[in-house]
Each structure stands twice: as C-alpha cells, then as structure tokens.
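Checklist before submission:
- one chain only
- standard amino acids only
- sequence pasted in full

Submission:
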Amino acid sequence: MSILITILLIIASLVALVLIIGLFMKKEYTIVRQVTINKPKQDVFNYIKYVKNQDDYSVWVKIDPLMKREYTGTDGTVGFVSAWDSTNKKAGKGEQEIKGIKEGERVDLGLHFIKPFEGRSDAYLVTEPAAGNQTKVTWGLDGKMAYPMNIMLPIMNMEKLIGNDLETGLSNLKAVLEQT
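Returned file contents:
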C-alpha cells in the first residue's frame, strides 16, 4: 500500500510542478514571415485586402475545399467576416474579420477559432515597397494560449508549425500574383 501512495505522491508532485512552471511561462507567441513579390505595391495590396482571395494562397483554406463558408459584409472593408465550418479537424470551425485597413499598407485581421479548440489570434498583412517594382509582404500572427494550456507552447513549437504554413501561403501568394 505504501508503494502505491508513494507513486501517487510522485505523480501529484510532478503535475503540481508542471502547473507551477506554467504560471511563469510565456502565454503569447508571435510568428512573422516575409516574401518579395515582383509586382507593384498597390497591385499586391489591392489583392491581399480581399479575404476571399485567401482561397488562392492560404494553406488553411486549402485544407478542406468542401468546407462550409459564410460571408458577412463587404469584402475588402473593415467589418467583413469570413466564417468556415469543416468536418476536417485540421480546418475546424471559426471566423476571420477585417479589423482594420491602412489603405495601401496594412490589413489587420481578427481570428476566432471555435473548433477543435477555442482561441483568438490577431493576424496582419503588410506591404512595403522593395527594389524596383517589387513589394515586400509581411504576414504575421500574434496569439495567446491561456494557462494551463501555455505549458504546451514549447512542445508544439508554434514558430515552426504556424511559420511553415505562413511561408507556404506567401509562396503561393507570390506564385499567384506573379502569374498575372
């Protein structure tokens, strides 16, 4: 009986230790990727400000081409909402809203994930002039994991997980825009 109690105390101590460590671990993460596109800045911005155009380049939209989609508002304007619902757990259910637009420069998006996990993140796309007739596009995502789920941040490696998706999305965007 004392061996069982000792094992339970060790397990309880380990769980408590992990939870205490989680109190002091970061809860926020920021992922940023960039690409240079051989198109003028205004052309690139005029394309990325429309959320529906993400169908052509976003990795996350391409996960399930059959997902249910619903739109509210006018695309390319503040307040536009793109909602999705998929039976594919990688796509899940959620919505994306245009929160702000600085014409010709920046689009701010609010992401609300509903399934498989509840969560909110802020994303943005920024265009800057580059050499010649090129445009540097920065795609960033700021997120937060609430305690005690923040314990998973180092294990999940959000930098690699989300960063790879952003890189692929930007490569897709570059291919799409440079074809036209």
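Reviewer check: The helical segments are 2-24, 41-48, 59-62, 153-156, 158-179.
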